[in-house]
Every structure is written in C-alpha cells, then in structure tokens.
Amino acid sequence: MEPYCVVDLQKITQAYATWKRWLPEVSVYYAVKCNPQARVLQHMHSLGIQFDCASKREIEDVLTIAPPSDILFAHPIKVPHHIEFARDQGVNLMVYDSISELYKIKQTHPNADLLLRLWVKNTPGSLLSKKFGAEMQDVPALLKTAVTLNLNVIGFSFHVGSPCEDPQLYCEAMQLCRIACDIAMTHGIPITTIDIGGGFQESNFEACAQQVRRGMQMFENKRFISEVGRYLVESSHRLYVHIIGKKSQGKTRIYYINDGVYGTFNCKLFDHAKPVLMTDREGPLYPSVVYGPTCDSLDIVEEMVTLPDLQIGDVLYVDHYGAYTLTSCFNGYEMKTFLY
Description:
Elements: E1 4-7, H1 9-22, E2 26-31, H2 38-46, E3 50-53, H3 56-63, E4 71-73, H4 80-89, E5 93-96, H5 99-108, E6 113-117, H6 128-131, H7 139-148, E7 152-157, H8 168-186, E8 193-195, H9 205-216, E9 223-226, H10 230-233, E10 237-249, E11 252-257, H11 267-270, E12 285-291, E13 300-308, E14 315-318, E15 337-339
Parallel strand pairs: 1-15, 2-3, 2-9, 3-4, 4-5, 5-6, 6-7, 7-8, 8-9, 11-12
Antiparallel strand pairs: 1-10, 10-11, 10-14, 12-13
Helix pairs in contact: 8-9
C-alpha cells in the first residue's frame, strides 16, 4: 500500500494548446525543476517544447531526449563545472546577473549567448528577486563589463515569482526590459531576445497573457521566450494516498497517511501550495488532523480539516498535483509509482 500518482499527459497537451492560442509568439522553455519525470519531459519534447535547466543533472536528463540547442541554462549563479559541462555538450544559452558570473563564464564558456536577468517586483509570497536579478542602476556596468570581456549578451530575462497572483507584474517587468534595451543600445549591444520567465498558472492565465501581450507592444523585432513550468503540468497529476493509522481525541480524528511533507506534500512548505484532501467516502464530518508517515513531528499535512470517519486502508486524493511536488527520501519514504 504505497502512495501513487495518476498522470494524464493530455492535460499537458491541452495547456500548451491554450498557451499557443494566447501567446503564439512566445517560445516555451519548460522549467524542468517543476516536474522532471522522464515521461513528462518526453511528452514536452514531442510537442516541440524546449527546456529551462538549472543544473548539470537537469541538462543531462534533457540531453537524453533533446538537442543542446533546445536548452536554456537559466540559473543566474552557476557551479563552474556545470558551465564547463554545458559548454562541452553544446549548451550555449545561459543567464547571468552579476559581474562575478561574467568572469566565471569568460573563463569557462566564453562563446555563450547571455541573457541578463533583471530585478523586478515579485508577486506576494515569492521572493525570487531577493535572491536573483540585477537592479536597473547596475545594468550599465553589467553590460559594459560584458563588452570589455568580449562576451555576447543577446537579451534580458526576469521572473515575477511563482505562482503569479498579480498579472500586471508581467507588463511592468517588460517595461524595465524596454529601458534595459535602450541602455544596451548605448553600449552597441543589439538585443534580440526577451525572456518573460515563469509564474503562470491556470487560474489567471488569460489575464497574465493579456498583460504579456501589452508588454510585447513595446518591442520590435524581438524573440520572446518563457520559462513555463507550473502552468503546463499542474492539472496533469492526481495523487492518491492511504490511511495507515488512526486515533481519536474526543470528537477529533487523527489520521496518519503514507505521504507527507517529506514527500509530495513538501509543496506546502516550499511552494506556498494548499493541497485539498478529498475522499469519496460519505458520512458525518469530524474535525481532523492529518499527519505524514515519518518520525518527525513537523510532518503535518493538515492541522485542522473536516473529514468523514475514515478507516485504515481508506483512500484520499488530491487533484492538480503535477507541479513542485517532488519528494525527498527521509525515513525511506518516497513517491515511486506514476500511472500513465
């Protein structure tokens, strides 16, 4: 009795079709970190989707199914030997946001095509710009240094945070890219590419797409790319877990299930997710606490939820579970079963 996911790859196909309908001019680089299952990557490739990788391991996984020209090495701060690996494999498109990264790239991959990642306002709850992105005041020096080092900057990138709850952030970020393009012109750098990052989700995709289209009107003759993850895969998975233990404290039911925050429910900690546990069992509802299977008291899936009276072996499920639900192996528990 192990947890498992049922995967519907056609949900990915449908999401991509909607993307192409709203943003046909924006090429998709799927964010491998979002869900790196081999079957998912293969399906992405069959649709003509390219790949956003953040490490040597992710590049290795993608190279088993796609050419190096399909890869964007999108991490702004890269391990030096990962850059060397990318160079040796022919992965040439990558991101930077600091002068030290430029010197690292000069030493390890001087022929790379570079995107300068800009600091932009992030959606509430996501602090990507606290860690990555060059502020506008630093852009001239970052471009001038690239010219001095004879490195090839071809564009700008940004990330508004994930999931994006404020669609207008995309247009505001693209305005900064427009300013950065003008700065690049003063340094003799022809900008060809704008990377609008990720953060897209099903619930407000059309509103976000409309803001991107507004932003695109500020540019001429530019290639637009994106680092889409969550939007493509979130609805493609349904998680099934089982009740493996039960206690009662007055009217409160305490349940233990065979997955937890050290497994796929890590998304509650790392992705601001709020997965909803559901059951087909009917009956009166009771206040319930749901724990994961590990020995750690922090392994709490739900501190207070209402559920019917459940028995050991009963099944709970969670829909829209395809994005950022990778597992650790703490205490030997991990997700191993995916049914397609």
